[in-house]
Amino acid sequence: MKNLLIIGAGGCGREVLQWAKDVNTALIREGKQPRWNIKGFLDDNPRALDGKKCDICVLSSVDDYEISENDEFICSIGSSVIRERVMDKMKERGAAFTGIVHPTAIVADSAVLGEAVIIYPFALISDNAVIGDGCIVNMYSSIAHDSKLGRYCTISAHCDVTGMCTLGEHVFMGTTSNLVPSSRVGNHVYICAGSTVMTRLRDGVKVLGCPARKVAL
């Protein structure tokens, strides 16, 4: 059994803690060994859990943690840019990263999941969809057939990426936003909550509305 270290003790990290527990519980119900010994959080704020109900603690800052051979890491930092930076830095120190797919998520046999992805409860990853390294797909969101998410995308809750869409790297989709079929989204695009993308979006834009239009960053 591996030790699981969760990087980031904020809201996303505490959610990921529960999803990891749910993975362990599902395995135990099947008569199997749990996947992880959940060891604790790594966070540069030692008081990140103050006032929160949580049964594991912040062990140390990210940089101060001494990596053991049996450790696996999951990065639950909300900012995709910081998420990538922290993961790259930890990999240089020899850290091994894992992904989490909640037992209630539906992932097609033909789907491809990259390294260290986090798939929340009741998400759907459909036929021949591709989820890039470090992506987060939140609860009740769907990635339809033949769609591709680039590295470190963040898909909020109740989003709909319809068929044959392509997202670049570091795309953020706000809650209940959606893409019409065959949409093309560039890198570092921010799609505001409730928006509908109906055309191609170039790199670095922030869009809002239905149809989604560029707004000031």
Span of the ends, CA to CA: 45 Å
- List the helices and strands in order: EHEEEHEEEEEEEEEEEEEEEEEEE
How are the strands of the largest sheet arranged? 5-8-11-14-17-20-22-23
Measured as a percent range, the helix fraction is: 10-25%
Q: Which stretches are poorly predicted, pLDDT < 50 over at least 5 residues?
A: none
Tally of individual helices: 2
Query: What's the alpha carbon Rg, rounded to whole Å?
Result: 17 Å
Shape: globular
Q: Kindly state the number of beta strands.
A: 23
Structural class: alpha/beta
The overall pLDDT, averaged over residues, is 97
Query: Describe the biggest sheet?
Result: 8 strands, mixed
Write the layout of secondary structure elements.
Elements: E1 2-7, H1 11-29, E2 36-42, E3 58-60, E4 71-75, H2 80-92, E5 100-101, E6 106-107, E7 112-113, E8 118-119, E9 124-125, E10 130-131, E11 136-137, E12 142-143, E13 148-149, E14 154-155, E15 160-161, E16 166-167, E17 172-173, E18 178-179, E19 184-185, E20 190-191, E21 196-197, E22 206-208, E23 213-215
Parallel strand pairs: 1-2, 1-4, 2-3, 5-8, 6-9, 7-10, 8-11, 9-12, 10-13, 11-14, 12-15, 13-16, 14-17, 15-18, 16-19, 17-20, 18-21, 20-22
Antiparallel strand pairs: 22-23
Written description of the protein model:
The protein has 2 helices and 23 strands. The protein has helices at residues 11-29, 80-92; strands spanning 2-7, 36-42, 58-60, 71-75, 100-101, 106-107, 112-113, 118-119, 124-125, 130-131, 136-137, 142-143, 148-149, 154-155, 160-161, 166-167, 172-173, 178-179, 184-185, 190-191, 196-197, 206-208, 213-215. A hairpin with a 4-residue loop joins strand 22 and strand 23 (213-215). The longest helix has 19 residues, at 11-29. It is globular and about 45 Å long. The protein starts with a strand and ends with a strand.
